[in-house]
Amino acid sequence: MVGPFQCNCKIIVCPVTGESAIIDAGDESEKIIAALEKIEWKSADGKSLKPNVRFLLHTHAHLDHIGGTRGVSEWVSKKEKAAPARALHRGDLFIYEKLQEQGSRFGFTYEPPLPIDHFLEHEERLEIGKLRFSVIHTPGHSPGGVGFRLHEDTSLGVRETVYSGDTLFQGSVGRTDLWGADADLMFKMIKERFLTLDGDTRVCPGHGPETQIGIEKRVNPYVGNQR
Question: In whole angstroms, what is the distance from residue 227 CA to residue 225 CA?
């Protein structure tokens, strides 16, 4: 977790190739960098591997999910001699570009955000080494909110997982009183695009503890009781 809003920043690493993605580098770039530097493992042929960050993925563009992007991106660019792709859905670009204005509302100071160079699309496929992701556009909490579905791969020990951002939480859902939010659309997207996933799909939200799709279908007071 990073920052005063305790954003769940995730570092996803392919165990075979070392190619990596960071989901929601929300704040405390130095903390994220320190975590990256500690990751090291042996490949099947005994080689020492470290993460090679290819993507900085964003579920949406509220300040607590993008505040560390610049610092991490600049560090990776120097270390790898190549910048990671900064990825966001186009619907949230206007929010991303207002990072400094967002910060001023809370007394935080940010440098201007670096440009987005990869615009995510609904059902787009992403490959991080051997790991397979698909993008799920879930507008409502914000116009360009997305989830990232990590597809199961038993050969890699990878469980079916969705990184739901601030749209679906354990026992709750996202706020809809912010720029471009739409409560009715958010509920529709949760029911049609998240709750239709397999019940044992792991849910990693933008804040708070993990849950499962099946649990939220049964007990979430906002969108639950769906059998």
Answer: 6
Give the domain CATH number at 150. 3.60.15.10
Domain that holds residue 208: 10-219
Question: Which pLDDT belongs to residue 227?
Answer: 46
**How many Å apart are CA 122 and CA 215, to the nearest integer?**
25
Mean pLDDT on 191-199: 98
**What does the pLDDT read at residue 82?**
84
> How far apart (Å, rounded) are the C-alpha atoms in residues 155 and 134?
19
> Residues with Cβ < 8 Å from 108, sequence gap 6 or more?
63, 67
Q: What is the rounded distance in angstroms from the CA atom of residue 52 to the CA atom of residue 60?
A: 23
Contacts 24+ apart (CB under 8 A), 36-44: 36/11, 39/11, 39/13, 41/15, 43/16, 44/16
Q: How far, in whole angstroms, is CA 145 from its chain's centroid?
A: 10
Q: Which of 224, 173, 161 is nearest to 195 (CA)?
A: 224
Chain centroid to CA 141: 14
- Average pLDDT (141-152) is 99
Name which of 98, 92, 118 is nearest 110 in CA terms: 98
Question: pLDDT tens for residues 96-137?
Answer: 999 999 999 999 999 999 999 999 999 999 999 999 999 999
Number of domains composing the chain: 1
Q: Is a pLDDT exceeding 60 seen at residue 38?
A: yes
Residue 42 included in any domain: yes
Contact partners, residue 205, CB within 8 Å, separation at least 6: 8, 163, 164, 165, 166, 168, 169, 170, 211
Determine the Cα–Cα distance for residues 142 and 40; give it in Å rounded to an integer: 36
